[in-house]
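Appendix B. Raw example, untouched.
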Amino acid sequence: MSTSVSAAGIIAYDWENRTIKHHRTAIRDFLTLREATVADQETLTAWLVENHVPTTRQIPALIKQVKTRCRELHLELPTPDRVERLVRTAIATFDAQLTAQIVARLSPTTCEHLDALLHERPPDAPVISGHGQTLLANLKRDAGALSLQTVKDEKAKLDAIAALEIPASLFAGISLRLLRHYREQVATEDIQALQRHPDARRWTLLAAFCFLRRQEILDTLADLLLDVVQHLGVKAERKVERELMRDFKRISGKNTMLYQIAEAAVEHPDDPVREVLYPVVGEQTLRELVREYRASGPTYHQRVYTVMRGSYQHHYRQVVPLLLEVLQFHSNNASYQPIITALDLLKRYHEAAPQQVSFAPDERVPLNGVVPARWREIVVQAGEDGLERVNRINYKLSVLHTVREKLRCKELWLADADRFRNPDADLPADFAEHREAN
């Protein structure tokens, strides 16, 4: 909108004269605006607290929302300093209300345990290798390389968080972005800074940190399990390939050889093989054909599986049961329930004697959807009585292989995890209602 006033006229305008008040009133009347009162500012603060602060804490974004709201209400926009103060007041008000709600859900015992995170580690606290001076410092530590000690350390962190007795529904309905903001604040502040916070805010910050840290640790343990399966397969394949390459030689003209062997066998069906076939193809060529087939046929998979079994028994036999004990697998698809049953079976047989090579004869062991077809002959073996038995170690390797595939494509998910969470949690709230329409 143009006022047809020159720049020189604006410069010469007396901004301190009492006339400016009348001019401002005339401008407000012309634009149908009114000056914001204290009550209006309180209303704006309450509006921000209810509608925008729960989802964002960015000052510029909230200032933009205030400007938009003032235009909708036909309010004259306060000065930039006042708008920023209004936004910061809204954030502080929201935090005060939220922390009061959170603390009301916490028991006095939990609050004491949260404060204990900031104190020196007591002697009876869960032991973590290379631990810091406080329990909180332990929880902040990232996981090390794949090893039994790393898994034990991560499990000790989970035990320490479980000992806090934080209610599972403590942060129900609260924005994940806000929780991550609280988590980052705890991660970056030192112990003294955290101790200076008021009780309600300190307990809320620590509870949010531990709530999300538990999810992160479960994700880390899932990654370690995937790494175990990956290392077993890749290392076994490389080792077998190195061994086979020494004997491997690609033979050309296989179709011609097959014809020559068939022709010689048909013409001399009763003569010895050495007299009939060796002159046609040659003993060395036949041996090389056998080696090539073994290098690319079912024997290859059997040798890979044998190496995987040896690697598991020597390096990962203690790690995997500990991981399966901590991780709780679920599936929303009924067709993958045999995998859940198989995992429960492995947990029940964890303490079984090593001499018990197979599962009990009367044990129902799921195979379909759990054991790949190429491994079925290795997993299911004939016993001394002629009956089929399921080898425990071979079965466990098959289950781990299937779990890795299904977990990566979210057919399986983990309770209380973040990246490996229930995929249904990512669907819109009204997805079921509009599923048929979509």
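End of appendix B.
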